[in-house]
Amino acid sequence: MRRRLFSMLAAVAVACAAIGTAAGGGAASASSAAAAAESYEWKNVRIDGGGFVPGIIFNQTEKNLIYARTDIGGAYRWEQASKTWTPLLDWVGQDKWGYNGVVSLATDPVETNRVYVAAGMYTNSWDPNNGAILRSADKGKTWQATPLPFKLGGNMPGRGMGERLTVDPNDNRVVYLGAPDGNGLWRSTDKGVTWAKVASFPNPGNYAQDPADPNGYLSHRPGVVWVTFDPSSATRGTPTKKIYVGVADKENTVYSSADAGATWTRIAGQPTGYIAHKGVLDHAGHALYIATSDTGGPYDGAKGDVWKLDTVGGAWTRISPIPSTSADDYFGYSGLTIDRQHPGTLMVATQISWWPDVIFFRTTDGGATWTRIWDFTSYPNRSFRYTMDVSSSPWLTFGTNPQPPETTPKLGWMTESLEIDPFDSNRMMYGTGATLYGTEDLLKWDTGGQFTIKPMVRGLEETAVLDLISPPSGAPLISGLGDIGGFRHTNLDAVPPMMFTSPGFTSTTSLDYAETNPAVMVRAGNFTDADRPGDSHVAFSTDGGANWFQGTEPAGINEGGTVATAADGSRSVWAPKGVAVHYSVGFGTSWTASTGIPADAVVESDRVNPSRFYGFSAGKFYASTNGGASFTATAATGLPSTGNVKFKAVPGREGDIWLAGGDSGLLHSTNGGASFTKVSGVTTAGNIGFGKAAPGRSYQALYAAATVGGVSGVFRSDDTGATWVRINDDQHQYGNMGEALTGDPRIYGRVYLGTNGRGVLYADNGGTVPPGDTTPPSKPGKPVASAITSSGATLTWTASTDNTAVTGYDVYREAGTTDVQAGSPSSASFALTGLAADTSFTYYVVARDAAGNSSTASDPVTFKTAAGSGGGAGCSAAYKVTNSWTGGFQGEVTVKNTGTSAISAWTVTWSFANGQQITQLWSGVHTQTGAAVTVKNASWNGALGGGASTTFGFGASWTGTNGVPATVTCTVG
Q1: CA distances from 224 to 122, 159, 247 (A)
Q2: Which of the following is catalytic: 71, 339, 606, 744?
Q3: Known active-site residue 483
Q4: What is the bridge-based pairing of β-strands 451-455 and 386-388?
Q5: Fewer CB within 10 Å: N-end or C-end of the chain?
């Protein structure tokens, strides 16, 4: 059925669809009444590069008009004045995320404002959409699209070959596209608006790296891979007659047409056994050059040749710098370019040469003789025709210190594109798997000097972002990245000096910091185990990510999975990929398997209570109250059973959790995951993050990659999810974004966004403050006391209402001139504990909203606790704040013997809810671990007769909130 569909569609032209007309290139989308919009300035956190640049395209008639294409990060245009790159496809939305895979790009040599992109990331099932031809008449500021009846593979095998998209230099109405997977050669005769298959082209290409690959990735057939025109074969205004086409077929790799594509012929005498990655025509000297390899690349290739075709006489000549017949040839060739100012001068690159480095070859006599960019002298030493200056991107050394003959940084790898500027013989650019390099003094090669290679990549950001954290102190951002590990970003607008090392991960899959001790951090990641069998996939830092050390690891780990550290950094919980969840006290010196939670769960920590951790897997939420030793599935319902679920706990609020559930929307829990409530208006949610609260508001700002009111984007809420404002726009959609997302706890309005191929973005709202909410919640109902015992009771009341949302309540006990806050529940009930027996108490309740408005106090309730047991031994403890000031307070605890028999010792315990720390204590002996406090009697006040009481006092620090512990427990002994 699939082949039938393609063959039917090939007989007709493909219609055009508009993608966008606004400046900047965005697709128009309906605005939503449910979510307002706010102007944000979006910029990249500078890393510079970080991914594969398979294509660099110089316009042949306009100086300094240069484009670059990437495999997953869109396309860019060069800005000569600033020597930076401008991204062109940031408007691509999540519905067409595959358009950020650019398999080819063409710049029009006639109307130089015109540019075309062949877009589509995968040809297998990973990308749900077909490919498209994107066209622009203003150098990429705005775009329109023609959907194709087949997929394109910007991130598939063979993506470095090309260019497969080319504009006829004589008649720019004509544009050709070489298609993959049996779809042959396609042509447009109306500047890319409509397309039809060239039925007469005989060979769609049969090469696949692994035809039996069940994933459909290595079985991809690159197909028709380049198109080259001979402009001398026609006059301006008429279609070019002589056209050359390269095909991924080892026995039939070059075809030609002499009649503007009406008929095609396999060129006689051509080399066989290899694939022509590049085809470059010297139309002045009437020579076609091809660079071949035994595979489609870009990661492999062990043999190849360079050939020259006399396009007049028809003779082929092998001009390989090192021929495939030589034992010294362990690479294929690609990266072929010609100096248009001196057509006899060519350069070619080894398509892949991992050791000791890639090799560039240069000829000034049409391939008769070649020189190398480096040569062996006395092994292992080498001589170099170049120097490298990576001071602008120092991380390109990868923190290594290799032994000769290897050096750092390397010239590169995966060098499929190497281009000499057609207007300037001194300028050359080339792409690698990590960056884009170039030189502006290339001609020194020919005069015996050393030319300088530098990164020419500023503005081109191509990292895939897997996790981001923004701690409340230290560096503002820590990133976890694919392929290059990640960075500590002390300055968002400067390239970091080095990625994470010691240990280094190829990809960092998870990051966390200790909320109340943010200098403590943990990260987990991936690397090739066979290369480093003694290393661990988890690492720790105690200085905010400046330095790292590795822990041990349980057996069987190959991938990092997710990791979380306790609120105080005292322990960590790790869920490696494919291995049981484990916990470690300290910094990973040993690990113990957690119970009650499945492998591959996503794990996070509570941001207040160091004993609490959470997990999620297959529709179930798990909670631990003993530091990750054991987990219990909660009774929460309505959670997604599949998908890439993200959840996080709110700083400063124990048990407050937000869960981004994909198509299940956004869900919120205030009871440690025991239950969740779906947030209205949010239909899908990919990720959630928190940042500094808006001025005048107490609850952290929420940031979500979500769909709100039918509009997909990045949103902020300043009122606990009651209302949302869109903070990106149609020009800043970034395709497949949101795997990583966080706000900044220090700067209101700042958000950090991770993308899959466009690096790390950050945005600010310019200090805009949301409209103030001055309406307080309604007065709560009078509390009702029930379940009264000698040491506790339960209060319930009628809930308040608010114009946005009630975020919680504060319960107070009347205590003379200074009432004491007993707790801050999120719902309309509260359990009182630690009360003295046979004592009258009076309580009232105040409601509050996200803006910090407080209601009128409820009417008070008075009740009396039950009498003590009348015998035996028991004790109670009553906690109160006796004095408070900014940053500090004084407390007092009354210990009472609730029985009739004398006791000789007592112990009081509680957990602080808001990170308070005791600085001194009198009339007792205390210890504090994180939030947990234990106080034992002093030598002189442990003995209490029946009904007798004593007190101890303490001084403590607090920040932000000073809630009374929910439970204060006294035990005898």
Answers
A1: 16, 11, 4
A2: 71
A3: yes
A4: parallel
A5: N
